[in-house]
Design brief:
Alpha-Beta Plaits; 2 domains; 289 residues; four-stranded antiparallel sheet; 14 strands; Rossmann fold; 31% strand
Length: 289
């Protein structure tokens, strides 16, 4: 079942492009990574899905419901952590979380206490006295306190120290095991590689690739390094990109039938050879070159 279904979603701010003709789905129970540099359209996409802004054209549904027509109803079952969090400076953390919980039915005090303990928050401190990282931790608790079945996380770990990042990822995995679907937007590619089932790559407002992590790494291209002092060694063949040569080493990315490269290699005097799967960051940069 698709929790999120996006069809040709487009948003222009006057003549400026936000996103254009986005189409993708997010499956129930998965952690979907949404990656791209700043300005690619990640936050615009999330705001459209949350009906905080309205599209120029196209359509999106969450839980099978049109996000533009019934946005407030849908948001009751969504947790959202924006990339930047802003609160009333004079409020205490405790009062802010109690106020947030009042928008949802049922008693969430036990849940808040659990999340506060995990994120190591001081409940009696005022917002103005919190560091950026601690404000982000408040946002994490606020987004999760009502046990939503769908989470939108926009650059969630910025400002968190490495230990707290690890706790955050453990918390998200724990929620996911309970069946929570997660839409995880980031430009920290290692994070996406670490936690996501599938990934969508957005470039200049357009989706350029949607794939599961394993397929994206294995079928995209290979990272090949060859050490040879053979002066005739030439690897300029179709499918080769990012060719670099230094001190006898030749390094390149290759997309295509790997046997063609092996046939070429067999004709030279080779001292060393490695064929690896690229990292997500290398795949990402490939789409932006």
């Amino acid at each position: 079942m698709n929790i999120i279904d996006v069809n040709n979603l487009t948003k222009f701010y006057g003549k400026s492009r936000g996103v254009e003709n986005l189409s993708f789905t997010v499956n129930e129970g998965e952690i979907f990574g949404f990656i791209g540099p700043n300005g690619a359209g990640k936050s615009t996409t999330i705001r459209l899905l949350l009906s905080l802004i309205h599209p120029t054209s196209g359509q999106a549904t969450i839980f099978g419901k049109d996000v533009t027509k019934v946005g407030p109803e849908i948001r009751q079952n969504i947790g959202y952590l924006p990339s930047e969090v802003f609160y009333y400076d004079d409020m205490r953390v405790r009062d802010l979380l109690d106020y947030s919980a009042s928008f949802y039915p049922e008693d969430h005090r036990e849940r808040i206490a659990y999340l506060v303990d995990v994120m190591e928050l001081e409940m009696n401190r005022k917002i103005r006295d919190l560091s950026y990282g601690n404000k982000k931790k408040v946002g994490i608790v606020q987004g999760l306190l009502h046990c939503p079945p769908l989470l939108f996380l926009d650059e969630p770990t910025s400002g968190l120290d490495p230990l707290m990042q690890r706790k955050f990822f453990d918390l998200i995995r724990e929620e996911n095991k309970k069946g929570v679907t997660v839409f995880f937007s980031s430009h920290f590619l290692g994070e996406v590689q670490r936690i996501c089932d599938r990934v969508g790559i957005i470039r200049e407002g357009r989706m350029v690739e949607v794939s599961d992590m394993r397929t994206l790494q294995k079928n995209n291209y290979k990272k090949i390094r060859v050490l040879s002092q053979d002066a005739s060694a030439n690897f300029e063949i179709p499918g080769v990109s990012n060719l670099q040569q230094e001190d006898g080493w030749t390094q390149f990315f290759y997309s295509g039938d790997i046997n063609r490269v092996l046939q070429r290699v067999s004709g030279f005097a080779i001292e060393d050879l490695s064929i690896e799967e690229p990292t997500l960051e290398e795949i990402f940069m490939h789409y932006y070159e």
